[in-house]
Amino acid sequence: MKEVKIETTLEVYDAINELPKAIQDLMNTAIEAREHAYAPYSKFNVGASILLDNNEVVIGSNQENACFPSGLCAERTAIFYAGAKFPEAKILKMAITASSQNQVTDKPIPPCGACRQSIAEYEIKQDQPIEIYFMGAQGKVVKSNSLANLLPLLFESSVL
Ligand code: THU
């Protein structure tokens, strides 16, 4: 038996204003997107914004459905839109913010497992890491230098 240790390094910023202006702008775009989330069931609004290497910014918010599994998370809404609209562009950065309608969300909310797997697909496809920033409605912001860093042992197409 051999023990394998997997390490992840994240940067944690106390507040959004500690980040470079360009990242603040990207996060503010995600906050705007979050405000347009359609979340009547969970009352949990999530917004995502993506910066592409062609300088375009693509946004997404969670879109829920009365048939719950038919809804989609903000991150996948955004990344699928980016893939559909700008298939040749590389994804440089992604900002994510979440805010409950019931309580103050003051801790960073990371993308769910399914979203991590979906983002991983694009990171592998473009062979370039995607920087990911995530926060709640206020407070700390976490930065990951890549998606792989957030999803060790990810499933990839080479095994198919
Ligand atoms: N949600 C996201 O949009 N992104 C995540 O990474 C986690 C969860 C949404 C899905 C659902 O609309 C609501 O948040 C509660 O799960």
UniProtKB/TrEMBL annotation:
Signal peptide: none
Coiled coil: none
PANTHER family: CYTIDINE DEAMINASE
GO molecular-function term, one example from the UniProt record: cytidine deaminase activity
Listed Pfam families: dCMP_cyt_deam_1
Enzyme class name: hydrolase
Name of this chain's protein: Cytidine deaminase
Keyword entries, A-Z: Hydrolase, Metal-binding, Zinc
Gene3D superfamilies: Cytidine Deaminase, domain 2
Family: Belongs to the cytidine and deoxycytidylate deaminase family.
Entry function: This enzyme scavenges exogenous and endogenous cytidine and 2'-deoxycytidine for UMP synthesis.
Keyword Isomerase annotated: no
Cofactor dependency: Zn(2+)
